Amino acid sequence: MLVNGDAVEVDVPGMRRLLDVLREDLGLSGTKEGCGEGECGACSVLLDGELVDACLVPICQVDGHVVRTVEGLAGRAVDGQPDLSQLDVVQSAFLETGGAQCGICTPGMLMAAHAFLASGADPTDEAIREAIAGNLCRCTGYTKIVDAIVLAAHSASQPPVE
Fold first, then answer.
1. In degrees to the nearest 10, what's the CA dihedral of 103, 34, 73, 80?
2. What pLDDT was estimated at residue 161?
3. Which of 12, 34, 82, 139 could join 101 via S-S bond, C-beta 3.0 to 4.6 A?
């Protein structure tokens, strides 16, 4: 499988959860476990560009596929670690609007927002709320999260400043 652009091989039982492989075997602790039942979205990652709950995906279904985690959103430094000076537009927008609270849901929200923006859908409040409906947050009323996604949509549509 390809994880955040790197070819990865793991020798684990086929029914081991993708979530556990990411966190425990690959050290990618950004993906969080909330419920372990696919209800909260804290463990959301992109699998071949589609948003999935990593707690529901057995690793045997990931062989030969592309996985992108929250660590894969930021640019990468020379050592291969995330470069926090090269945040993704969604990450920057969450920081700017205060869209992150305690942090449990944040990685999943970022991945859901990224998938929504990549879909090219019109970033209306209703469409954004529908896109993040599978991601539960207990800290907010979602207003700042929606504001962050709107900001990211507008930022992404602007040409880069040279």
1. 100
2. 45
3. 139
CATH topology of domain 82-157: DNA polymerase; domain 1 (1.10.150)
* Domains 2-76 and 82-157 agree in fold: no
Domain residue extents for the chain: 2-76, 82-157
DSSP, residue by residue, the chain: -EETTEE------TTSBHHHIIIIIS--TTSPPSSSSSSS-TTEEEETTEEEEGGG-BGGGTTT-EEE-GGGTSEE-TTSSEEGGG--HHHHHHHHHT--SSSSSHHHHHHHHHHHHHHT----HHHHHHHTTTS--SS--SHHHHHHHHHHHHHHHSPPP-
Cα(44)–Cα(51) distance, rounded to whole angstroms? 6
Profile the chain (162 residues) by mean pLDDT over runs of 10 residues.
Answer: 96 98 97 96 98 98 97 78 80 94 93 97 97 92 95 78 45
CATH number for region 2-76? 3.10.20.30
Q: Are 60 and 18 in contact (CB under 8 A)?
A: no
